[in-house]
């Protein structure tokens, strides 16, 4: 049970700044996901919180206590590494019980406690195995068991699912969320996968070049990205982003496309962002845009459209698909109130429509 | 299906047999000599004879076991100190880049330093401290090459341990040193075992320091063997027995470490 | 000082302390000795004579003789070991039957104390008592292994007997780490075995080969036990090697100052080789 706060936290090696005066609040009991492309400083931030990297400037507090100078062992945190870092020489049970050795609890108590944790994670039958005799998913559970046995103030997860295959990743994702909710322990989770971030987080912090690009609830960030970077980073397929002008509800790109955007204020120069789900295609013989490629995804399809010099994507459901084939001329329109507008120079979000 | 016998295959087999005979012949010959009487020793072609144990009795009388005991003691002390200090140092160098490449270079240089450079200071110091002709200065002298060799040897093994193990243990509530002791060391135990055996053979086999620092009293095994060569002429039979005593333990021990030797000798630069 | 720096140096401290006592101090003291007229026999404090010992030994034909003997010895021994070692390593690589036993047996000599090797060969190659001369005589060949012109070569052969296994060990490891694909690609392309070896295996083996040759050369430079066990420098001074010469100067003639000066000249050569070796190791570690 703890609230974690980053206050102007900085990390630099020589003159290279990795994390640049970052402020983040991690509310008590929340699951906050730090997400961003590689090199954005998310892992370094997590490692500073764990005490594995020194903090160059600013303060990190856990429950109001400044932890900057504290060793990891004195911070009461638990961490799951990307490669799980299971101790190869110890059995599953001993791995899970290992953190209790530091607290000098009697060995029999520690092992009994570890057995309970193992049972709760469905590892009950595997406790005498060595890590190398486990599957990736089982290893992952052992790492989680080792993290929860001590009931720490804060859980830290460093890309814990990236070594699992796609199916297992989705299953484990929900299991992790359930465990975290049940224990109510503040969790900080680092990933480069925006989908994982969207589905798991209570709060999401998008990072870029050592700074926080945007933070908030994942649905808020999806609905109102504050910059072109966040807009294109979050959401799949990626948001269409085109530069152009708007007049009388009509957007014309510098590449020659024309998109109807009803109800959008006239502007001279603007970046228009349209999520593929919000780009409506209507087959029209006189239209200049052409369907270039159709990727079938079962009930829906991603349709790529060549319009002037622009390549746009739209998500179309089965009903709409029957009228489309490669080469079909289509008119383009943005669904009402779904246009995102950004400043062409700063790439920051403009006040809504 | 018949296996095709290529000329290369025949050459290969011949080469290996020749090598095996070359390796084995001198050892077998010496082993046989240790059971020969002085008269039988004069006949070099003699392979079938009635063995006797006179030579063995003679070397045991001459105190060869005391010398072997001293050699073992010197080697054990040298290796114990080296393994403790060396594993700590090797981890600091491998994981924390401690001391930079100057330290790595120093360690490599120290293990190949010619003993002729260091031996006279050891000798004069031993005289000054009145511990000349004892095995105490030999331990210091052996540390001068066994410690660098073991440290160097272990760097490669620590390089193969993922850093996240130490980090995980620290997050799990342990200090850096406890993490090193409880989590990192168990991963390199096979390497430490190989390093210890290798260091033991280096110390056990060295004669130069022993000859100069303790030539007459408290001789170590190689010096004691050499003594059969000069003391009252050459006692071939006894000398052969002494050679077998020196050779057998290390050759047996060496069988267990060969797979790990390469990684160690090259400081991790060459891996299996 | 941060915790990490403290830990780092704390872990390194025992090695540094022991190395300081067992290597650093003697090294400095040896250098001091090389500048004095220290004799084991004289009671009083030695006088500092500056570089006199160096001038003396550098103009001493016996020292140059010892250097050239050692160089000849190292070159013959290491060259033969390299060729033999490579051949045996290639043969062993394909060996399947009793694989581990064969390897263990062929590698055994490198674990034997060199004085035992020396004495064994002294005995084995002895003109009257040795098995090998006796066999050669029965073939009508009369060869004196320790005679003039032969002795140094015989010593080098002892080194070959004992240390070819070291070459085999390193080269075998090198061969086994050669990736299979380029070799298979060469085979698919119709290359002969010899071509594949020369163009694919040998280049990949070069780093290991260099390390092995340098390590062996450094070790062979220290040859002492074989000389002590067999020839004691003879016939004449034909087999007087540096380490043996230093031993004689220091221990038999009690002239520690001069002996230390010789040792430092040797050290200069060794250091040059170590720098080469270190560069090579760093480069191969960086790959």
Shape of chain B: globular
> Which oligomerization state do the chains in this entry correspond to?
heterotrimer
Strands of chain B, count: 0
Binned, the helix content of chain A reads 10-25%
Protein name (chain B): Carbohydrate ABC transporter permease
Subcellular location (chain B): Cell membrane
Domain ABC transmembrane type-1 (chain B): 68-257
GO cellular component, one term (chain B): plasma membrane
General description of the model:
Chain B: It is a multi-pass membrane protein. Chain B: One of its GO terms (cellular component) is plasma membrane. Chain B: Its main location: membrane. Chain B: This is Carbohydrate ABC transporter permease. Chain B: Belongs to the binding-protein-dependent transport system permease family. Chain A: It holds the Pfam family TOBE_2. The complex is a heterotrimer of chains A (353), B (272) and C (287). Chain A is an alpha+beta fold. In chain A, 25% of the residues lie in helices and 35% in strands. Chain A is built from nine helices and 20 strands. In chain A, strands 11, 12, 13, 14, 15, 16, 17, 18, 19 and 20 form a ten-stranded mixed beta sheet that branches. In chain A, helix 2 packs across helix 3. The longest helix of chain A has 18 residues. Chain A starts with a strand and ends in an 11-residue tail after the last strand. The mean pLDDT of chain A is 91. In chain B, helix 4 crosses helix 11, helix 7 packs across helix 13 and helix 9 packs antiparallel against helix 12. The mean pLDDT of chain B is 86. Chain B contains 13 helices and no strands. With 287 residues, chain C is an all-alpha fold. The longest helix of chain C is centred in the first third of the chain and has 34 residues. The relative contact order of chain C is 0.14. The chains are: A alpha+beta (353), B mainly alpha (272), C mainly alpha (287). Chains in contact: A-B, B-C. At the A-B interface, strand 6 and helix 2 of A face helix 8 and helix 9 of B.
Output the keywords.
heterotrimer, A: 353 residues, alpha+beta, ten-stranded mixed beta sheet, six-stranded mixed beta sheet, 9 helices, 20 strands, 25% helix, elongated, C: 287 residues, mainly alpha, 12 helices, globular, BP-dep_ABC_trans_perm (chain B), transport (chain B), Carbohydrate ABC transporter permease (chain B)
């Amino acid at each position: 049970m703890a609230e974690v706060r980053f206050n102007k936290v900085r990390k630099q090696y020589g003159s290279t700044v990795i994390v640049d005066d970052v402020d983040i609040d991690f509310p008590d009991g929340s699951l906050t996901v730090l997400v961003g492309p590689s090199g954005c400083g998310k892992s370094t931030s997590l490692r500073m919180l764990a005490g594995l990297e020194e903090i160059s400037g600013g303060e990190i507090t856990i429950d109001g206590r400044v932890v900057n100078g504290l060793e990891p062992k004195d911070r009461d945190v638990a961490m799951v590494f990307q490669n799980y870092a299971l101790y190869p020489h110890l059995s599953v049970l001993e791995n899970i019980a290992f953190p209790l050795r530091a607290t000098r609890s009697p060995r029999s108590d520690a092992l009994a406690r570890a057995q309970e944790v193992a049972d709760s994670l469905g590892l009950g039958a595997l406790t005498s195995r060595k890590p190398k005799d486990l599957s990736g998913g089982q290893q992952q559970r052992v790492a989680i068991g080792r993290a929860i046995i001590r009931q720490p103030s804060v859980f830290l997860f460093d890309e814990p699912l990236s070594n699992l295959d796609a199916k297992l990743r989705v299953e484990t994702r929900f299991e992790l969320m359930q465990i975290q909710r049940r224990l109510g322990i503040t969790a900080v989770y680092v990933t480069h996968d925006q989908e994982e971030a969207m589905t798991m987080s209570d709060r999401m912090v998008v990072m870029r070049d050592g700074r926080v690009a945007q933070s908030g609830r994942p649905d808020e960030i999806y609905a109102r990205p504050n910059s072109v970077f966040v807009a294109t980073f979050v959401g799949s397929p990626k948001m269409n982003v085109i530069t152009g002008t708007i007049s009388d509800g009509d957007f014309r790109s510098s590449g020659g496309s024309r998109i109807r955007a009803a109800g959008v204020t006239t502007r001279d120069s603007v970046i228009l962002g349209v999520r593929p789900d919000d780009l409506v295609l209507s087959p029209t013989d006189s239209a200049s845009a052409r369907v270039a490629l159709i990727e079938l995804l079962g009930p829906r399809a991603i349709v790529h459209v060549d319009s002037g010099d622009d390549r746009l994507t739209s998500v179309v459901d089965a009903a709409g698909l029957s009228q489309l084939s490669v080469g079909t001329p289509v008119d383009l329109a943005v669904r009402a109130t779904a246009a995102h507008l950004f400043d062409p120079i700063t790439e920051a979000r403009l006040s809504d429509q | 299906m018949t296996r095709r016998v290529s000329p290369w295959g025949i050459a290969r087999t011949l080469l290996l047999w020749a090598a095996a005979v070359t390796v084995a012949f001198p050892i077998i010959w010496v082993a046989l000599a240790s059971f020969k009487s002085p008269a039988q020793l004069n006949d070099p072609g003699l392979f079938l004879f009635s063995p006797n144990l006179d030579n063995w009795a003679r070397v045991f009388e001459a105190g060869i076991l005391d010398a072997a005991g001293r050699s073992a003691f010197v080697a054990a002390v040298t290796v114990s100190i080296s393994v403790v200090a060396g594993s700590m140092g090797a981890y600091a160098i491998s994981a924390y880049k401690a001391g930079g490449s100057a330290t790595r270079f120093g360690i490599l240089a120290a293990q190949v330093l010619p003993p002729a450079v260091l031996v006279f200071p050891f000798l004069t110091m031993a005289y000054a401290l009145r511990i000349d002709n004892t095995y105490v200065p030999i331990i210091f002298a052996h540390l001068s090459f066994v410690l660098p060799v073991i440290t160097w040897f272990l760097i490669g093994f620590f390089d193969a341990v993922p850093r996240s193990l130490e980090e995980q243990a620290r997050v799990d509530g342990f200090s850096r040193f406890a993490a090193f002791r409880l989590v990192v060391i168990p991963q390199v135990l096979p390497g430490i075992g190989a390093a210890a055996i290798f260091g033991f053979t280096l110390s056990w086999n060295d004669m130069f320091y022993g000859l100069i620092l303790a030539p007459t009293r408290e001789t170590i095994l190689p010096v004691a063997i050499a003594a059969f060569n000069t003391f009252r002429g050459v006692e071939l039979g006894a000398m052969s027995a002494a050679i077998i005593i020196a050779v057998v333990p290390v050759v047996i021990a060496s069988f267990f470490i060969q797979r790990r030797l390469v990684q160690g000798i090259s400081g991790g630069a060459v891996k299996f | 000082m941060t915790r990490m720096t403290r830990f780092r140096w704390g872990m390194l401290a025992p090695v540094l302390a022991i190395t300081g006592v067992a290597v650093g101090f003697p090294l400095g003291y040896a250098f001091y000795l090389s500048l004095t007229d220290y004799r084991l026999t004289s009671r009083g404090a030695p006088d500092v004579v500056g570089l006199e010992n160096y001038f003396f030994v550098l103009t001493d034909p016996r020292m140059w003789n010892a250097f050239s003997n050692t160089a000849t010895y190292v070159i013959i021994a290491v060259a033969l070991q390299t060729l033999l070692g490579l051949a045996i390593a290639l043969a062993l690589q394909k060996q399947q039957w009793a694989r581990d036993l064969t390897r263990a047996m062929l590698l055994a000599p490198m674990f034997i104390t060199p004085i035992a090797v020396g004495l064994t060969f002294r005995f084995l190659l002895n003109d009257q008592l040795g098995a090998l001369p006796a066999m050669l005589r029965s073939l009508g060949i009369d060869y004196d292994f320790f005679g003039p012109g032969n002795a140094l070569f015989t010593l080098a052969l002892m080194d070959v007997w004992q240390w070819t296994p070291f070459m085999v060990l390193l080269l075998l490891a090198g061969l086994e780490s050669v990736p299979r694909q380029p070799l298979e690609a060469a085979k698919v392309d119709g290359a002969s075995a010899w071509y594949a070896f020369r163009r694919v295996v040998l280049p990949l083996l070069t780093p290991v080969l260099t390390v092995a040759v340098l390590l062996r050369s450094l070790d062979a430079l220290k040859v002492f036990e074989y000389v002590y066990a067999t020839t004691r420098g003879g016939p004449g001074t034909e087999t007087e090697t540096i380490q043996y010469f230093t031993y004689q100067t220091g221990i038999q003639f009690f002239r520690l100052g001069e002996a230390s000066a010789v040792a430092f000249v040797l050290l200069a050569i060794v250091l040059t080789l170590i720098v080469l070796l270190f560069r090579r190791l760093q480069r191969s570690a960086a790959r």
